[in-house]
Design a protein that fits this description.
The protein has 425 residues and is mainly α. The chain has 2 domains: 2-65; 91-410, no CATH class. Helix content is 69%, strand content 4%. It contains 18 helices and 4 strands. A two-stranded antiparallel sheet has the order 1-2. The chain has a two-stranded antiparallel ribbon with strand order 3-4. Helix 5 packs antiparallel against helix 14 (298-324), helix 7 packs antiparallel against helix 14 and helix 11 packs antiparallel against helix 14. The protein is globular. The termini are far apart. Mean pLDDT is 84; it is low at 67-75.
Length: 425
């Protein structure tokens, strides 16, 4: 017990040195300018979490009968539960708009966007084993492709959607060629640089992308040519169906649109896994040298993984542009790539259901937690809970990093392990 306490105190001391300046001090606007304000409670809570977390890890590792239970240790989500869990999640997703709450529909749309991005990146990272830290670049290419095509040529969403995916896939192939001989950390560095290059180009090519100001008035999607407008006149959804025009109609339509796009991504990925191409991706993930010795064309295998993953990222980017009606380079930073990669890793590399669960927990869970803290703060009149709710987005990456560390210690293969080959000889 003494070594465990000593290690826990040492970890807490290191955490105190890190969190005291990073979390315990914050710049705030004062009467005379910026004022340094202290937040000792927040720093103390984080230090206490580190102390008890480290102590709990030691107690868990030294528990009696660990060796006997290690053989029986399974997944957080048993493999056999997938056949029931997936239909339940799908039914919940389809019925969510029936709640009538715009907050839940908007939150569901956000979660499904990250689910689609996670499934697209899962092709590259989870199936092919290629570490990609610049996936947000394809997200940006899809968004700007739709926005520029609509602005320049007056094309609609349904015309630009496949074009955005094709252009993103083209850039995925361009990224794949220079990195054919790279693996591991070197591949990650190059893909990270590619994502930053795209962002810098978007900022500085003002004549084309409007620079930091972004692109506004991006057209909304239509339903068989019918616009979602509050006017309720001819050519609108409300006018055609003779109903009262409401904003929630467009919100629900966008929700079902991203749900359909996410399901399309999932269906294509599952179908590809059963094809020779999907088995080649899995073989490449396990051992590239063995792939070459078996006569698998590694070049085409890598390029197809980059292209197909980028295509789905482009689809998600086009949806993001039409939903927001405004895009700017600030929407496509490295944080987005890190978030999507964290979702894939936490869910389990190669696992479709795991990625969906991770996106639901990491994106939807944080938003629900912020709403809960805000409600508690209002009901109790507590500035502490209200402040935590307001500062929660600031600690977003800290929470993601903590979740990754915990998962790497307890469940190294994620919520649902998906590394079992599709075809076994």
């Amino acid at each position: 017990m003494k070594p465990a306490l000593r290690d826990a105190f040492l970890s807490a001391a290191i955490a105190l040195g890190l969190f005291a300046p990073l979390v315990g001090l914050v710049l705030d606007n004062g009467d005379q300018g910026l004022v340094l304000r202290g937040r000792p409670v927040a720093a103390a809570v984080l230090v206490a979490l580190v102390f008890f977390g480290r102590l709990g890890m030691h107690l868990w590792a030294d528990r009696p009968g660990k060796e006997a239970r290690a053989v029986k240790r399974g997944l957080i989500v048993p493999a056999g539960a997938n056949r029931f869990l997936a239909p339940m999640l799908l039914a919940a997703a389809v019925l969510l708009p029936l709640t009538g709450s715009r907050y839940y529909v908007d939150l569901g749309t956000l979660v499904l966007t990250y689910v689609m991005l996670g499934w697209g990146l899962n092709i590259v990272v989870g199936l092919a084993g290629l570490l990609d830290l610049g996936y947000v670049a394809f997200y940006a290419v899809g968004a700007y492709s739709y926005a520029l095509l609509a602005e320049t040529f007056g094309l609609g969403f349904w015309t630009c959607l496949p074009l955005a995916g094709i252009l993103a896939a083209f850039w995925g192939v361009l990224l794949g060629f220079p990195v054919l001989r790279l693996r591991g950390d070197y591949l990650a560095i190059v893909t990270l640089a590619f994502g930053e290059i795209i962002r810098v180009v978007l900022i500085n090519w003002v004549a084309l992308t409007h620079g930091p100001n972004g692109i506004t008035d991006i057209p909304r999607p239509t339903l068989f040519g019918l616009r979602f407008s509050m006017d309720g006149g001819e050519g609108t959804v409300a006018g055609f169906f003779d109903i009262e025009p409401e904003t929630i109609h467009r919100v629900v339509f966008l929700y079902y649109l991203i749900l359909a796009l996410a399901l399309l991504t999932n269906w294509v990925t599952i179908r590809l896994r059963g094809l020779p191409l999907g088995r080649a991706w899995e073989a490449l993930r396990e051992d590239e040298i063995a792939c070459r010795s078996l006569g698998i064309d590694v070049t085409n295998t890598k390029l197809t993984a980059f292209a197909i993953g980028a295509m789905f990222g482009g689809f998600a980017g086009a949806f993001f542009a039409t939903r927001q009606a405004f895009i700017s380079p600030e929407s496509f930073t490295f944080i987005e790539s890190a978030t999507v990669l964290a979702i894939v890793v936490l869910g389990g590399l190669g696992s479709q259901i795991g990625v969906a669960l991770a996106a639901l927990v990491m994106v939807g869970g944080l938003e629900m937690l912020r709403d809960l803290l805000s409600t508690i703060g209002e009901q109790m009149g507590s500035e502490l809970f209200s402040g935590l709710a307001g500062d929660l987005p600031t600690y977003r990456m800290l929470i993601f990093g903590l979740a990754l560390v915990v998962m790497m210690v307890l469940r190294p293969r994620g919520l649902v392990s998906g590394r079992t080959p599709t075809a076994v000889l």
